[in-house]
Amino acid sequence: MDLKNKVAIVTGARRGMGKSHALTLAKAGAKVVVSDISQEDCKQVIDEIKKQGGKAIAIKCDVSKKQEVEEMVKKTIENFSKIDILINNAGICQFKPFLELTEQEWDKTLNINLKGYFLCAQSVAKQMAKQKKGVIVNIASIAMGQVGVGFFNMVHYCASKGGIVGMTEALALELAPFGIRVNAVAPGAIDTPMIDPVKSDPKTMEAILTKIPLSRVGKPQEVSNLVLFLASDESSYITGSTVVIDGGWLAG
Ligand code: NAP
């Protein structure tokens, strides 16, 4: 899959799946904006991309802040003249029983995981609409609801991920006339720092593995391969879809 001459923004790209998506898109030829709330580790991602022979810059952006999102889009255009691909990936997952969940914790999760996707999608889509072409990939989760599987201690996270799926469908309709495709990816358990609390609890880990027919958690690269396909012209007739990648969890 060839992304030569394409420009991609990946949010939350200093580590975990975001880093993997950035490296993968760059390997396919895209110029990549490695964006994260913290610049820590971004330089390392940039260095790795350059070592692969790719081109990348780091831009600090808290996706829940409109001004920072607009600044990220402006700097991207200043550096690369256009934006072809947005990977809305930045997210947080705090495990907390519902009856103890505070309003602040609810707001923080929804502000980053859902409002952040809206702010980035809108700001980038304004540029893509001028170009009459673009692709947005929203990272949701199998914790998105309506799939017959519920999750404990994640009410706020599930609400945000379900919101992303609804937003993806609605955006696909509104942005199709501008040549912009919008899809979501719904991963199961993937081996990133986000699931460290789960990995450090052998009982929970064992319970999770019994739910996964492939009997293992996924690797970030396995998700990046799907993200690359959806970001490329090879998926030119796919829009408004949510693609599950979970080792069979939801089929179980
Ligand atoms: P991760 O390793 O925790 O990476 C998430 C990145 O997002 C971190 O670098 C984090 O920075 C950054 N971030 C947090 N708040 C931000 C903000 N306000 N603005 C910009 N960046 C921010 O997690 P991951 O597993 O790679 O997750 C990537 C995406 O996949 C998330 O949307 C997550 O919900 C989704 N997902 C993950 C799994 C899984 O099993 N890992 C499963 C399904 C879906 P800090 O480290 O500084 O907070």
Shape designation = globular
Q: What is the level 1 CATH name?
A: Alpha Beta
Distance between the termini: 31 Å
Overall domain count: 1
Uncertain residue segments: none
Q: Kindly provide the radius of gyration, computed on alpha-carbon positions and rounded to a whole number of angstroms.
A: 17 Å
Percent of residues in β-strands? 15-25%
Average of pLDDT: 97
Structural class: alpha/beta
| β-strand number | 7
Question: Can you give the helix content as a percent range?
Answer: 40-55%
User: Main sheet: which strands, in order across?
Assistant: 3-2-1-4-5-6-7
Characterize the largest beta sheet: strand count, sense, and whether it forms a barrel.
7 strands, parallel
Ligand list: NADP nicotinamide-adenine-dinucleotide phosphate
Number of helical regions = 8
CATH superfamily label: NAD(P)-binding Rossmann-like Domain
